[in-house]
Amino acid sequence: MSATTPTRPGPRRSGPWLSKAAVNGALLLSACYMLFPLVWLVTAATKDAGGLLGGNAFSFEGFDLGGNLARLAEYGDGVYFRWYLNSLLYAGGGALVCSFVCIAAGYAFDTYDFRGKEKLFGVVLMGVLVPSTALALPMYLLASKTGVVNSYWAVLVPVLVNPFGVYLSRVFCAGYIPGEALEAARIDGAGELRTFWSIGLPMVMPGLVTVFLFQFTAIWNNFFLPLVMLSDQQLFPLSLGLYAWNSNAHAEPGFYPLVVTGSLLAVVPLVVAFVSLQRHWKAGLTAGSVK
Amino acid sequence: MTDRVTAGRPGPGGPAPGHREDGRPGPGGTAAGHPGTARSTTGHRTPSGSPAAPAPSPAAVRPGGRSGARARAGAAALLLAPFFVLFAVVMVLPIGYALWLSLFTEKQSGLGFGGTETVFSGLGNYTAALGDAAFREGFLVLLGYCLVYIPLLLAGGLGLALLLDSALARARRFFQLALFLPHAVPGIIAALIWVYLYTPQLSPVVKAMEAGGIGFDFFSPSGALPSVVNIALWEWLGYNMVIFYAALQAIDRSVLEAATVDGAGAWRTAFSIKLPLIRASVVMVALFTVIGSLQLFTEPLILNKGTGSAVTSTWTPNMYAYTAAFDRNDYGLAAAASVLLALTAALLSFAVTRLAGNREKKSKERKARKERTA
């Protein structure tokens, strides 16, 4: 980081030390606010129903993580892990196809010139502004007309489209693929699609990972669409399954540990992904911010 | 900021996300040193317009330039097709269908024995929705939510980003990650966690507050809005902070050094130099936040399921549409409510971009005037 050196004429004498403490203190405080619910989730997931309802949240009294996990695996013939696999399928499959679709379109917008290109790109940007939940209801009605409602397709197809992903892809293609490389490939006689596949795509791979990561998160976190589309428990993603369990918890407090432990396991993959792929989500937010 | 506003490429209308402020298309720091970052975005292209024209472009120099142009047009169409086919199916078609549906209503035929029939009702569903106090109240709730949430989010995000960008901050990577991490938590789970943290029997927070003599019922009528705002802030504050921070990091450091040399303190630099330079990011975040806020659904839904909450099942317009469709099976009304919501989103995003555009124009005029008088 190119921090400016603190040798500038300090306006206050007690300045550097005190303000340093203030700045870092404020940051620390906000980090605590962000992390504290997650810490609670971890400790709460280790408790049985009694410990959760009565005990001190941050102690380990009523420690029963093993029991919670066992109950989670057993309940409803292991339906929780069915949901887990469903979520992986929706998010993994959906994000994979979506990111390729986005990169292909972004590459075309970046590389080629054709009539009405910027107008067409404007249409994509308009798509960014459409509130997705306003589309979910008509989409449900369309799906029930065509009979795909309450199926894998009903949740998978809508998440293949991400206009903002196309925008990001265009920015990434402009940044990662030097035009000279494409020209060279053409002069060597490679066809256009061949050039895209073996020259452009490998070069823009970091951008693809970024688009994938954001779409994976969006689908993993998606709740409204599955809520509207699915009624068969066997097709539920995690978000919807946990919601259903939570609705039972008021009448049946035994569900609380299931919901809490299930939530913890549901959060783990994304936390791991974000911790290990920091470069990629930062790149995405940077590209999305001003560029 | 004029030196940064170079037409990297024709901006696709308005300072929407497509509004690029400088010629650096790459993903920030990571692309530094990448061979692509320095190239001009138009230099190597064939000129726009009719692609087959034998213009002095690289295509013309190459053997078979004309057929090459045709091949490129074909490839462009092929690469764009998957996206636009899906776009049509998943976005355009539902919008059209919602508009269509909103014009019809189900009527009991005869004496109610013959089931229902669908009849054209014109704008009847719209007047029904707008005439329903519950729907209008939903918009009032939304207005209150936006007025509290958006300023807090923008101020908080900018404040944290400026703190993190200041020379005094330590452990920047850690703070960035820690603040961003809630984004990895699905909205529904975030809402669940917080509702548990609001529930007196479960929550260490409520207990601690009671011990400190503060009694606050998160489920009471006056507690509903703060409860929802807090969940939303927790989810989005860090995410937007990282966007602002990324924009701040992209500021040319020599500008800041010049300000320091001129005697500007940290506060002065932050407010008079850094903030104006990242205006585009602020506008973008505001735009996305407005659109996201209008769709408010998950968090209040979970609060609604909490026992004895003041949040009703039609608390926000989106919840109203959902209840209309699935509890009352009134699809026409649900479609009309959805259309009205989408229309509001369109109007507001237009207003935000317009407002931002106007202000930019004004500040440019002011600058020009200053330069003239100088």
Automatic annotation (TrEMBL), chain A:
<feature type="transmembrane region" description="Helical">
    <location>
        <begin position="21"/>
        <end position="42"/>
    </location>
</feature>
<keyword id="KW-0472">Membrane</keyword>
<feature type="transmembrane region" description="Helical">
    <location>
        <begin position="197"/>
        <end position="220"/>
    </location>
</feature>
<feature type="transmembrane region" description="Helical">
    <location>
        <begin position="153"/>
        <end position="177"/>
    </location>
</feature>
<feature type="transmembrane region" description="Helical">
    <location>
        <begin position="255"/>
        <end position="277"/>
    </location>
</feature>
<keyword id="KW-0812">Transmembrane</keyword>
<protein>
    <submittedName>
        <fullName>Carbohydrate ABC transporter permease</fullName>
    </submittedName>
</protein>
<feature type="transmembrane region" description="Helical">
    <location>
        <begin position="88"/>
        <end position="108"/>
    </location>
</feature>
<keyword id="KW-1003">Cell membrane</keyword>
<dbReference type="Pfam" id="PF00528">
    <property type="entry name" value="BPD_transp_1"/>
</dbReference>
<comment type="similarity">
    <text>Belongs to the binding-protein-dependent transport system permease family.</text>
</comment>
<keyword id="KW-1133">Transmembrane helix</keyword>
<feature type="transmembrane region" description="Helical">
    <location>
        <begin position="120"/>
        <end position="141"/>
    </location>
</feature>
<dbReference type="InterPro" id="IPR000515">
    <property type="entry name" value="MetI-like"/>
</dbReference>
<feature type="domain" description="ABC transmembrane type-1">
    <location>
        <begin position="84"/>
        <end position="276"/>
    </location>
</feature>
<dbReference type="InterPro" id="IPR035906">
    <property type="entry name" value="MetI-like_sf"/>
</dbReference>
<keyword id="KW-0813">Transport</keyword>
